[in-house]
Design brief:
Number of domains of chain C: 1
Oligomer: heterotrimer
Strand content of chain C: under 5%
Radius of gyration of chain C: 19 Å
Shape of chain C: globular
Distance between the termini of chain C: 46 Å
Distance between the termini of chain A: 75 Å
Number of strands of chain A: 16
Order of helices and strands of chain C: HHHHHEEHHHHHHH
Number of helices of chain C: 12
Largest sheet of chain C: 2 strands, antiparallel
Strand order of the largest sheet of chain C: 1-2
Helix content of chain A: 40-55%
Helix content of chain C: over 70%
Shape of chain A: globular
Largest sheet of chain A: 8 strands, mixed
Chains: A alpha/beta, B mainly alpha, C mainly alpha
Number of helices of chain A: 15
Largest interface: B-C, 46 and 46 residues
């Protein structure tokens, strides 16, 4: 009895002393992480692999001890229920379960909505997959950070690749999803294209709604117009449907298709995607990346991912791993700064700025405004033996520092200042 | 009506005290009161025998009006924003109601549906004006002159919401007991006789429509202020259906019915989200079917003293 | 290009109109006979599509040629209509004939909610795109635009066949005439010895089959996802309201009208495309609420 009482007093004293330590936080038993992704609707073909990647990678991380011995426990939230229901669920997870770390979101529209809410709720929110540059340019956040690139970097690299591949193009049409990403990405692409080649004619700007299931009339219109180039920053089920319908009607025969997000659809589309289509990967994310495909980290993960899901990893998978790697790196940096003690949310959020880490491919750097910088990979489709879907050739890598908006400036204006000499910059290397 | 009064007090107490035990439940409670106010509006029309599958358009319009105003004048007090929502409802109700109330039965329902779908489609399409399907965000504005942190703000909003619910319930009850309100049920039973007595069915229904639109607009304002976000989904026809659903579930006999219905609706949604992941629509569907067969006049009817005649309608 | 646009818009619009017509047909038939608007009608559309996709995948897995799809699609529709339609009619619709119209609508709305979750539970939330039949039938070039034969010929073809078949059935066959009788006056039909209960069940099942057939026909061309039923309901309302409740020929004309209006809008004013069906519905309801083809009823609208 005495021993129990004594140890209780002792424990109480220790706790009081520990609690009175200025910045010390007691190490939690587990780290709850809320993850939003698309689990229903057309975008789920894109979002569900992200969830599988998270499960797999968190399992790996926990098996290796977690973050300083703290295991990660994920909760998944479906973005497919719509923005206001997502917001309610986001708040509920944060407030009801006391989750302090959120990975959100996939949809640029949702990111715009969630960022200020996360800042208000004082939770660390990692923008793990959305691309709109506006979310970090229109406001400075402390708690919101991004472990991947953004629309500016991606659209600029696409324009450069396009002009290098088809310098004599005259007409272009765009068909993007009608929401933040579709509109913002087109604004950037158009400004950059016109800055580099002012004589290009834009013959059509089509914006079918996000989640549209039928593009027949748009395809008829595009066929009638016969532009040299058709751009679409669509992704997920929307892109799949568009490509399948376009393929059925031979749209690719009359126009060059530029699909900066199509790496995530290559396997699902299979033979529906013909040769010669320009494909991007929102980053240098490609399981056959010439520089990394034989490196053990990517190779092993690809193998495990295939065993778990039966498919090759696509760029949302890479982004998820990157976000988790970034989170771990952020925590480790904050722990070091905090002299080995478990850091507060604020400390981790601050540690994320200036962070440099690697996901499955190249290095990612996070700037002081929370924006991530990663190299961009673009290539052209080609069917080869050994895979029943096209692979990418004529791959070029675009380092982010040459094509990202300086901190504090607004992208749509900045891209207008690009000079044509950039197209042939020697740092843009072709790999195969 | 004593039982009903007890239920009213109980509901209000639950709404105000539950957050003490479960702080995260404030937002669902606020949304629940907003829903109840909208259902109260719809119940007025149901009493007249008309069902509108488009009243979500007033909720949506109220919300967007609040969003536009708040973005233009971010320091405008939230109390004024609530008034903006209600006013939008009044104005739209007057305009739309002026021609819609000439119709009856299924045509009334379909015209409302069509108008709400036009609004829904327009809001989703004109990205540069309305933010498209992503909607519009609004910042937290001062409440009664105070600049509040999120927690305190939500508490104030909840109290205001409950107060508005009680106030609107009381006002609607008074309206329904007045001549104009009593005339409403005559539109359902025998409109010609009403005209014969000298009361214009058109004016009666128009007034009822305006009140219902006002309540829905107010509901939309509460929604917008609570979420900080408005999207076209607020005006989708299924939302209109849900409002009607809640009104029937709770019963239109007594204003408290709308809030009982809203409470059950929100509760099942929360419960199903946590345990049945995604089957909440199915559960609610079965609940309503059971209600229609077993207690067609809704739950609030069970609170009234038993009358000798057992009516088979709402 | 301007001349050609009209022809292209017409071709695009016809295929869409055919689907609208089939869905609207089912709804208007049910209303004509039972005087109830079935808010769950769009769910039959969705279920028809899902069933067709499932059967299609099953057939491909067993090595069947895509040509079998031409049989599988109607089969899927019949299965959905008979199973879910009959289930809904016997368990729900039968018991609400004498109830308040508001309650009737609510019951069908509840059925819609149940079906929405049922789809998710059975078929999941990821999209289905089973389009082998479209690829199999190949393409046709018209004025330099490539159309799929399926879109140009199969879908409008089926709609036309159904239209003609249904009209002759209603005019010529005994059961058809009974259905017409019941749609005119239920009480007198009973007095005449018609088994109204059986007729109602039959009509409802046929209506559901038609809705499901539209879904089955549409599913090879588009991505099939949850929520597609909800969207289709409001579009079919637009057609039915424009035509007039219970009007079959009218539904065909209204469907073509709305289908063409939509496709012309995509060519000329693309931003207005989603608004067009509902704008037409509002205009028709405002100026001729009983629909373009109805005979005015004595009941005040």
């Amino acid at each position: 009895m005495k021993f129990k009482t004594l140890s209780r007093i002792f424990a109480g004293a220790v706790t009081v002393l520990a609690a009175s330590g200025a910045l010390a936080q007691s190490k939690p038993t587990e780290l709850k992480v809320g993850i939003t992704t698309f689990l229903s609707g057309p975008a789920s073909v894109f979002g569900v692999p992200g969830m599988a990647a998270a499960d797999l990678y968190i399992e790996q991380l926990n098996a290796a001890g977690g973050i300083n011995g703290v295991k990660i426990v994920p909760t998944y939230i479906d973005e497919g229920v719509g923005a206001d229901k997502l917001l309610s669920e986001y708040r509920r997870v944060v407030q009801e379960t006391g989750t302090k770390v959120m990975l959100s979101a996939v949809s640029s529209g949702n990111c715009n909505i969630i960022a200020p809410v996360a800042e208000d709720l004082k939770v660390l929110n990692i923008l793990w997959d959305c691309g709109t540059e506006k979310v970090l340019e229109e406001k400075r956040y402390r708690y919101v950070t991004r472990t991947q690139a953004n629309a500016t970097i991606e659209m600029l690299s696409t324009v450069l690749y396009l002009l290098k591949t088809k310098p004599d193009m005259k007409t272009i049409a765009v068909m993007n999803q009608d929401y933040a990403w579709g509109r913002d990405s087109w604004e950037l692409f158009r400004n950059a294209l016109l800055a580099l080649k002012p004589d290009v004619k834009i013959v059509a700007e089509l914006f079918p709604k996000f989640g549209a299931t039928d593009y027949s009339t748009e395809i008829s219109r595009l066929q009638a117009l016969r532009p040299d180039v058709i751009l679409s920053t669509s992704w997920g089920g929307d892109l799949d449907t568009f490509v399948r319908q376009a393929s059925q009607r031979g749209l690719m025969k009359s126009s060059l298709l530029v699909l900066p997000l199509a790496e995530s659809s290559l396997e699902r589309l299979g033979t529906a995607l013909p040769d010669g289509v320009i494909v991007g990967a929102r980053g240098d994310h490609y399981f056959l990346h010439p520089q990394f495909k034989d490196e053990p980290k990517l190779k092993n993960f690809t193998k495990k991912f295939q065993e778990k899901t039966g498919a090759y990893p696509i760029y949302p998978v890479f982004h998820m791993v990157q976000a988790l790697d970034g989170l771990v790196a952020g925590y480790q940096k904050a722990i070091k700064v905090n002299k080995g003690q478990w850091p507060s949310t604020e400390q981790v959020a601050d540690a994320m700025r200036g962070l440099e880490f690697r996901g499955l491919t190249g290095t990612v750097k996070i700037r002081e405004d929370g924006q991530g910088l990663e190299d961009q990979l673009l290539g052209v489709t080609r069917k080869v033996a050994g895979y029943n879907f096209p692979v990418l050739e004529k791959i070029m890598i675009y380092p982010a520092d040459l094509i990202s908006t300086p901190v504090g400036q607004k992208s749509p204006e900045w891209v207008k200042t690009i000079k044509p000499e950039l197209i042939n910059n020697p740092r843009f290397k072709q790999l195969n | 009506m004593n039982r009903a009064k007890i239920v009213v007090i109980l509901l209000a107490l639950v709404a105000l005290l539950l957050p003490v035990a479960l702080p995260w439940i404030k937002t669902p409670l606020i949304l629940g009161t907003a829903f109840g106010i909208a259902a109260l509006g719809i119940s007025i029309l149901i009493i007249s025998g008309q069902i509108s599958f488009g009243h979500a358009m007033f909720v949506c319009a109220g919300g967007y009006a609040v969003a536009f105003v708040s973005r233009q004048w971010p320091h405008l007090d939230s109390a004024w924003l609530l008034a903006v929502g209600a006013t939008t409802g009044v104005i739209l109700g007057i305009v739309v109601g002026s021609f819609v109330v000439r119709y009856r039965a299924i045509f009334f329902g379909m015209l409302n549906l069509a108008l709400s779908m036009v609004l829904f489609a327009a809001l989703g399409k004109f990205f540069n004006l309305t933010g498209g399907t992503d909607g519009l965000r609004l910042e937290r504005a001062p409440f009664f002159g105070m600049n509040l942190e999120r927690d305190a703000f939500e508490s104030v909003l909840l109290v205001v919401g409950v107060a508005l619910a009680l106030l609107s319930g009381w006002l609607v009850q008074r309206y329904l007991r007045s001549v104009a309100g009593q005339a409403l049920s005559a539109i359902k039973t025998n409109e010609t006789r009403l005209e014969y007595v000298g009361i214009s069915a058109y004016q009666t229904l128009w007034i009822g429509y305006i009140i219902s639109a006002t309540l829905c607009g107010l509901s939309g304002a509460i929604f917008a202020i609570a979420q900080g976000l408005v999207t076209p989904e607020m005006g989708y026809w299924v939302r209109s259906g849900e409002i009607v659903f809640v009104a029937i579930l709770g019963g239109v006999g007594h204003p408290v019915g709308a809030f009982i219905g809203a409470g059950i609706f929100e509760f099942v949604k929360l419960f199903a989200a946590a345990y049945l992941t995604g089957a909440w629509q199915m559960v609610l569907g079965f609940v309503l079917i059971a209600m229609v067969f077993l207690a067609p006049r809704g739950i609030s009817a069970m609170l009234e003293q038993r009358t000798t005649s057992k009516r088979e309608d709402v | 290009m301007s001349q050609d646009i009209y022809i292209l818009a017409v071709l695009d619009g016809l295929s869409y109109a055919a689907l609208l017509f089939l869905v609207a047909l089912g709804m208007t038939l049910v209303f004509g006979v039972m005087n109830i608007v079935n808010m769950a009608h769009g769910s039959f559309y969705a279920l028809g599509g899902y069933m067709a996709a499932t059967l299609g995948l099953w057939a491909t897995a067993h090595g069947a040629s895509p040509a079998w799809s031409l049989l599988i699609l109607p089969l899927a529709a019949i299965i959905v209509g008979c199973v879910f339609g009959a289930l809904m009619e016997t368990s729900l619709m039968q018991h609400i004939y004498n109830k308040d119209p508001i309650l009737q609508l609510l019951i069908t709305f509840s059925a819609f909610m149940i079906f929405e979750d049922l789809q998710r539970l059975v078929w999941g939330t990821q999209p289905y795109f089973v389009s082998d039949i479209v690829n199999y039938l190949g393409t046709a070039d018209i004025l330099g635009i490539t159309y799929t034969r399926y879109q140009l010929m199969v879908v409008p073809g089926v709609a036309l066949v159904v239209f003609v078949a249904l009209r002759s059935f209603l005019k010529l066959s005994s059961i058809g005439r009974q259905i017409v009788a019941v749609s005119h006056n239920r009480e007198i039909s009973t007095a005449l010895g018609i088994n109204v209960k059986r007729i109602s069940l039959l009509t409802f099942v046929v209506g559901s089959i038609l809705g499901a057939l539209a879904g089955a026909l549409a599913s090879p061309t588009v991505s099939w996802v949850p929520g597609i039923g909800g969207e289709m309901i409001v579009l079919s309302f637009a057609v039915v309201a424009t035509a007039g409740l219970g009007q079959i020929e009218g539904a065909l004309v209204a469907a073509i009208l709305i289908g063409l209006a939509r496709s012309f809008t995509v060519y000329l004013l693309p931003e207005l495309e989603v608004l067009i069906p509902f704008l037409i519905m509002v205009l028709v309801l405002l100026f001729r609420p009983q629909g373009l083809f109805s005979v005015a009823q004595s009941r005040r609208v």
